[in-house]
Amino acid sequence: MPKAALHLKQADPVMAAIVERAGACKIAYREPVFETLVRSIVYQQLNGRAALAIFTRLAAAVQASPMTPEAVLKLRPQKMRTLGLSQRKTLYIRELARMTRSGEIQFEQLPDLPDAEIVEHLTRVKGVGVWTVHMFLIFALRRPDVLPVGDLGVRMAMKKAYALEELPKPAEMEKLAAPWRPYRSAASWYLWRSLENQGAM
User: Fold this and answer.
1) What is the pLDDT of residues 143-173, one digit of tens each?
2) How far is CA 92 from CA 36, 39, 43, 149, 200, in A?
């Protein structure tokens, strides 16, 4: 993504220093499918290593690649709990599976929708909040201009990089990020790298 890196370096001297240290932007993308959103739910509020271990156990238990709603719903909730999922995340993943199976959530339509409509569509699922959808937009749908204002890592990185007294609130983040458009997704990746955060997705 050399165009994004070049834009960020030219648009913002603070970001230029971060880009210089991190090098080329190498976002690891996933497919915009059911399994990827399940993965995002598993990763909520966990460090990357713990989340990966739980997701790996879930994927093995489901015995379907890619993971399907039907395969998830064949697992008993108690079995899902033994894999390391909390009661709440078990409920969220089963709810997503039920809504996908019924057609209320249609992953095949998402690539054609604007970001705001995707947020509205997916947050109908209990346990799928705006942060989770922002991760899906960046890492699965490859949308170039997403600023995940609810992401703690991005907020911490902005506080550090811009020498702010407190963690920035969404309005302040939007203002600081205005020069990064239309590459705020790449900028977010660079901010995560500036904290050496290896568990973003």
Assistant:
1) 999 999 999 999 999 999 999 999 999 999 9
2) 14, 12, 12, 22, 20
Residues 90, 127 within the same domain: yes
Contact partners, residue 82, CB within 8 Å, separation at least 6 = none
Active site positions, annotated: 151
Q: Do 59 and 75 share a domain, yes or no?
A: yes
- Amino acid type, 84: G
Radius of gyration of the chain, Cα coordinates, nearest whole angstrom: 18
Q: Can the peptide bond before residue 182 be classed as cis, meaning omega within 30 degrees of 0?
A: yes
pTM: 0.90
Domain that holds residue 20: 2-28+146-194
CB atoms near residue 128 (< 10 Å): 23
Output the domain CATH number for residue 22: 1.10.1670.40
CA gap 181, 78 in Å, rounded: 45
Per the structure, the count of domains in the chain is 2
